[in-house]
From TrEMBL:
It comes from the Eukaryota. It comes from Sesamum angustifolium. PANTHER family: CCHC-TYPE DOMAIN-CONTAINING PROTEIN, PBF68 PROTEIN. The lineage of its organism: Eukaryota, Viridiplantae, Streptophyta, Embryophyta, Tracheophyta. This is Uncharacterized protein. Pfam families: Retrotran_gag_2.
Length: 119
């Protein structure tokens, strides 16, 4: 019984790796950067489906939610995080919502890691 479960897990891992690789391989660079840290092909697919196939209201809600939830961390290079933030802003703008540059900049300042609070 344990061997069967182990074989099933190994097959799942192989299949997940293959499908994840195919998904990432067919993405442009900006999408690749957003999804490369996803470990599950299903998570990538679900996120893509929610983001690009859902209705207009669902897509707008999704991109705004991602933008609002974004938070910078100390463990990741700052420029990578700023690039990620800019992609989130671009997603909001691409949904036809307006956002002035001052708001974008002020929200970005609020997203700095808590350890930066003295700056």
């Amino acid at each position: 019984m344990a061997k069967s479960e182990d074989e099933t897990k190994q097959k799942y891992d192989r299949d997940n790796k293959t499908v994840r690789g195919h998904l990432l391989n067919h993405m442009n660079n900006s999408l690749f950067i957003l999804f490369v840290n996803y470990r599950s092909a299903k998570d990538i697919w679900t996120t893509l489906e929610t983001r690009y196939v859902g209705d207009d209201i669902g897509r707008k809600k999704y991109v705004v939610e991602k933008w609002v939830q974004f938070q910078m961390i100390d463990e990741k290079p700052i420029m990578d995080q700023i690039y990620e933030y800019e992609n989130l802003v671009a997603d909001v703008l691409s949904e036809g919502m307006k956002m002035c540059k001052i708001l974008q900049a002020n929200v970005l300042l609020e997203k700095f890691p808590p350890t930066w609070s003295e700056y």
